[in-house]
Design goal:
Layout: H1 2-5, H2 13-16, H3 22-30, H4 38-55, H5 68-79
Length: about 80
């Protein structure tokens, strides 16, 4: 559980600051998370906070073959 709780948020502060592994940064960029609009970034921030509040650990998803649209859909499904 400690390992899960230490996982950085998708499109979160660590990713935006470049404070994630090279592989994670590349995967998030391929998924389109490196070029979010202000509205998309706000949506990710809101969903990250809601997910942590509900489950007490961050939303984790293999984003290697995902897009920002599929990531957001998965976020919303899991929060339901």
């Amino acid at each position: 559980l400690a390992l899960l709780r230490a996982h950085p948020d998708l499109a979160g502060k660590a990713a935006l600051a470049g404070d994630v592994t090279r592989e994670s940064s590349a995967e998030q960029a391929r998924a389109g998370l490196g070029a979010l609009t202000a509205a998309e970034l706000e949506r990710f921030t809101t969903l990250n906070a809601a997910y942590k509040a509900k489950f007490e650990f961050p939303f984790i998803l293999a984003v290697r073959n995902a897009t920002k649209r599929t990531i957001l859909a998965a976020f919303e499904r899991r929060l339901e």
